[in-house]
Amino acid sequence: MIYFDNSATTRCADEAVEIMKTCLQEDFGNPSSLHGMGAKGKDYLKESREAIASILKVQPKEIYFTSGGTEGNNLAIKGGVEAKKRRGNHIITTKIEHASVLNPVKAFEKQGMEVTYLGTDEYGVINLDELKAALREDTIFVSIMMVNNEIGALQPIEEASKIIKGFNKDIIFHVDSIQAFGKMKILPKKMGIDIVTVSGHKIHGPKGSGFIYINEEIYNIMVPQILGGGHERGMRSGTENVPAIAALGIASKLAYEKLDENRNHLYSMRNHLIEGISGIEGVSVNGHLDENSAPQIVSVSIKGNRTRAHVILNALQDNYGIYVSAGSACSSNKPAISETLKSIGLEKDLLERTIRFSFCPENTMEEVDSAIAALKELVPMMQL
Amino acid sequence: MTYQAFLIKYSEIGVKGKNRYVFEDALVRQIKRSLYPVEGNFVVKKQSGRIFISVEGEYDYDEAVAALQHVFGISAICPTVVVPDEGFDAMAEAVIKYVDEEFEDKNFSFKVMGRRANKQYPMTSMEVAAEIGARLLDAFPEMHVDVHKPDRIIYVEVRENIAIYSTEIPGPCGMPVGTAGKAMLLLSGGIDSPVAGYMISKRGVTLSATYFHAPPYTSEQAKQKVVDLAKLVAKYSGPIDLHIVNFTDIQLYIYQQCAHEELTIIMRRYMMRIAEHFAKENDCLGLVTGESIGQVASQTMQSLNCTNAVCSLPVYRPLIAFDKQDIVDISEKIDTYETSILPYEDCCTIFVAKHPVTKPKLEAIEKHEHLLDEKIDELMKQAIDSVEIIKVQ
């Protein structure tokens, strides 16, 4: 089995599984309990929070655990927009955001807020002049993803922040970092980001884990979305998922311990795949082909009569044991037309003929070779 | 309330003449089959124009009813209370107790329907109904009689025992499976063919099925989807032998040799030939397809004429005059819709010409098929010999 669908989800790291087992069966106290078992649970939270804070170079109290990326993005957008609603009525985001960003934004739009959706160039990158032009006196919230989940486009976050904060430092700047965390350095303070969302299962942590960084300066105004016993400083109530949080901390540490080494390995695999398949007729790679794109994602469009993404990915799975994704895996099995692929101006015919390879550090060059060989064999057959 | 019995009403079987027992016996067999996986000790018996299912001890009521709702031939399932025949007073007491327990709020209109299977009983059916009605009115003064449009009908049937019921849960009607011969269903992963299988089975037909698989163009998941669909149809039709035919080489050969606009028609003609081969091998008396006039290019009347021409067995098309929405409605009702719409492609949808011929001429198609003469027999033989048969329960 060759698994190249790591942007959908990753295998949980052994160390993460181990700590989860311990938390589920031995140190299973409720962190809110006052006894020793509770204190132990609290220690796991503290340790994980500190580990993540040190990676982002922020204060531990600025990290709030969530159930994953979707909850994080919902909390960021709903909590941030509601906080600033009195000051203005305008949100800026991009056309290529994940549904967990776009749908909360659209919900505000339905309620009467104005939204500007930034487009991208042919590589999936936003235009900073367009951002500049979109900013208004009543803009209260900007949300831009760091790495696009479908084609790996890297957005100029730091430059965007300068423009936004230069225009008005009161605008909340949210960055969906779900595909970026663990692949690149994210320093919210230095980069001028107010809110960062991360999901655990994209970095070899467990599903149902994640965190959100919220700049302490806006902590008081953010509107929590899950109310209850006041856990996570009141930002996200509900008994903490200690096993998942502990595992998330471990997975985060592991990802950043060998960040450069992993990234080089990912880029090597990416370059090798792109080079290997570039000779196949009708095959093209979307986005930047060099290091201006994320290291782990390769989006491939294939011209041909029978090259619809589902057909290719099933054929890769059944005949070669290779698992890839159709465009993006997050639309719950529904073949939806990708806004990202539309935004980069992909030919209409290719919108449903695009598959995504996404690597993790555990993948090998030999596996990439197998994928190249498989595509060389399969694609001409499917183009009959 | 705990019911110790179900009284089963059947529809069309009732009008059968001397052969009625054949249909009743088949219905009893199908009821036993459907109740087999349900926990409980069910005894199924024919009893003068009805079928009685008695249950001893504990059983899962909902599961039993759901199982019975899959049995063709049943028009109504009546959860029934059975008491021994110990004279009219005892019967009246039992009905009063039944009404008391069954209906919390007694403020409704009712009528009593009496029925005497035991013709020796000293009262007529009308007398039983009238007298029980009077006793009920005495016991529950808030109830009132309405013989034309009652809120509830209380049925009291006098047999060896007394059966009391008031609920009729609708069954699927139709004829019991096994009473009308066997047919070969051409099953795909789409919405139509499982519905066609369901509908023909509703007329008492037993099913076998053939599915055309075309790896690497179609996936293992597409095949599994068809197995899952066959399982859903088998809930109604009983066990199905699903023949999975590898169609890739035939499909590619047709694609290479023939005009692409005729690809679908020629492909379907070979599918029919192969399905008919397995039909004859399995003593089937016909083929069943999910075709509907005009739905796609291969289902125009001209196209159907061309595909039909290769079969010597009759081809049954239960959906021939149905609109798509009608078919979708049935597939939702029988629970195949959600599986049918899973996004795994069939070979029919993968090898489609951009502009397929919609009015093919049989003579032309037959002539063009000669382009395949060199290898098609051998490829057909390979496909037939390598068939995989899955027994779907």
Automatic annotation (TrEMBL), chain A:
Q: Which PROSITE patterns match?
A: AA_TRANSFER_CLASS_5
User: Does the keyword Metal-binding feature in the UniProt annotation?
Assistant: yes
**What cofactor does this one take?**
pyridoxal 5'-phosphate
Q: Which GO terms describe its molecular function?
A: catalytic activity; iron-sulfur cluster binding; metal ion binding
Keywords tagged on the record: Iron, Iron-sulfur, Metal-binding, Pyridoxal phosphate
Is Disulfide bond tagged as a keyword? no
What InterPro entries does the annotation carry?
A: Aminotrans_V_dom, Aminotrans_V_PyrdxlP_BS, Cysteine_dSase, PyrdxlP-dep_Trfase, PyrdxlP-dep_Trfase_major, PyrdxlP-dep_Trfase_small
> Residue limits of the Aminotransferase class V domain?
2-369
Q: Which domain of life is it from?
A: Bacteria
- Entry's family note: Belongs to the class-V pyridoxal-phosphate-dependent aminotransferase family. NifS/IscS subfamily.
This chain belongs to the protein called Cysteine desulfurase
TrEMBL record, chain B:
Q: Which CDD domains match?
A: PPase_ThiI (cd01712), THUMP_ThiI (cd11716)
UniProt catalytic activity: [ThiS sulfur-carrier protein]-C-terminal Gly-Gly-AMP + S-sulfanyl-L-cysteinyl-[cysteine desulfurase] + AH2 = [ThiS sulfur-carrier protein]-C-terminal-Gly-aminoethanethioate + L-cysteinyl-[cysteine desulfurase] + A + AMP + 2 H(+); [ThiI sulfur-carrier protein]-S-sulfanyl-L-cysteine + a uridine in tRNA + 2 reduced [2Fe-2S]-[ferredoxin] + ATP + H(+) = [ThiI sulfur-carrier protein]-L-cysteine + a 4-thiouridine in tRNA + 2 oxidized [2Fe-2S]-[ferredoxin] + AMP + diphosphate
First-tier enzyme category under EC: transferase
Q: Which residues bind ATP?
A: L186, L187, Y211, F212, R268, G290, Q299
GO cellular component term, pick one: cytosol
Q: Where is the THUMP domain?
A: 62-169
Where in the cell is the protein located? Cytoplasm
Fetch the Pfam families from UniProt: ThiI, ThiI_fer, THUMP
Tell me which InterPro entries the record gives. Rossmann-like_a/b/a_fold, ThiI_AANH, ThiI_fer, ThiI_N, THUMP_dom, THUMP_ThiI, tRNA_STrfase, tRNA_sulfurtransferase_ThiI
GO biological process terms, alphabetically, are: thiamine biosynthetic process; thiamine diphosphate biosynthetic process; thiazole biosynthetic process; tRNA 4-thiouridine biosynthesis
Q: Which Gene3D superfamilies match?
A: 3.30.2130.30, HUPs (3.40.50.620)
The record's GO molecular-function terms, alphabetically, read: ATP binding; CCA tRNA nucleotidyltransferase activity; tRNA binding; tRNA-uracil-4 sulfurtransferase activity
The keyword Transmembrane helix is assigned to this record: no
Q: Tell me its EC number(s), please.
A: 2.8.1.4
According to UniProt, this protein's pathway is: Cofactor biosynthesis; thiamine diphosphate biosynthesis
Q: Keywords in UniProt for this one? A: ATP-binding, Cytoplasm, Nucleotide-binding, RNA-binding, Thiamine biosynthesis, Transferase, tRNA-binding
* Family membership: Belongs to the ThiI family.
Explain the purpose of this protein.
Answer: Catalyzes the ATP-dependent transfer of a sulfur to tRNA to produce 4-thiouridine in position 8 of tRNAs, which functions as a near-UV photosensor. Also catalyzes the transfer of sulfur to the sulfur carrier protein ThiS, forming ThiS-thiocarboxylate. This is a step in the synthesis of thiazole, in the thiamine biosynthesis pathway. The sulfur is donated as persulfide by IscS.
Full protein name: Probable tRNA sulfurtransferase
What is the organism field in this record?
Answer: Pseudobutyrivibrio xylanivorans
